[in-house]
Amino acid sequence: MKIYLKFDFQTICKKVLEDTLLAHDIKHKVVGFGEVDLLEKLSPEKLNLLKETLNTYHIEMVENQKSILVQKIKDTIIDMVFNEDTVVNVKTSAYLADTLGHSYGYLSNLFSEVTYTSIENFIILQKIEYAKQLIINDNLSLTEIAFNLNYSSVAHLSTQFKNTTGITPSAFQRIITKRRELNQQQ
Amino acid sequence: MQEDYVNIILADDDEDDRMFFTDAFDELKIGTQVTTFKDGVYLMDYLNTDDCKLPHVLFLDLNMPRKSGLECLNEIKSNPKFNDVAIAIYSTSASEEDIERTFVQGANIYIKKPSSFKTLKKVLSEVVTTNWQYHTNGLNKDNFLLRL
Lengths: 186, 148
Fold this sequence. Notes:
By secondary structure, chain A is mainly alpha-helical. Chain A has helices spanning 9-23, 44-56, 65-82, 92-100, 104-115, 119-138, 142-148, 154-165, 169-185, and strands at residues 28-32, 35-38.
């Protein structure tokens, strides 16, 4: 005897997922296709066990998707700012959208939601932090630093430094130098 | 695993300032847990207990009875246990001398107490989000100086 079957894959997947979670005694809510809210915090052991069982169905657990994308945005920006070989002639927004394959609007909203800051502010912070390092460690002049970081002028760098940190580059240098002297005395 | 809220401590002898401070944090988007102390002695007693939960950011008023903010700052900076704590000076004074001295002695942030609640919220939000950037991006905290 032969029987014929018709499948609804979505329902099957959902059922498999539900049953697995139930078998592991995990309180949960299936939010949608490919997304489950766990209503309790799992121990690493329990999470691994769940991962293994799901893998037998070839269901793969993606570590937090949003965090992954945010990390990719950060990596791309840092590469743009610090890697001299990555010379970018297009606007940052276009470059990010191109590299990561999402619209800039989406990326920018996601970034703000996860990090509590905007992509623009993140870029400024990275550049200013790098400028700080150069001021202290390499004893470069502001003119050289402005050039290295692609600022149009020293004034632009100084203003952005002051706006971001509340102090001027020279005050910053003075404070850090004095702090080091103080630490050496102690 | 990172916690999803920011742990904040304030030491300030002015009761109204403590209240405004706590209220301002309640209205911010980023989740915070705020604890307050009314002077430096209470604060240091708490921080020196073995199982105390260290704050991400510690706000210090400069003028407090019994133990001043500056004395707290020096005690904290001489104890490696507190290396990861960002220190914010929260003062009515905005003299260049106070600002530079506290920065040199290891403070990360200097805030002149704002006169309006709206500005206070804005300032505290900036402190917490900037600190969060240092915390989550592995930036060098020795270079963390912020004046507001």
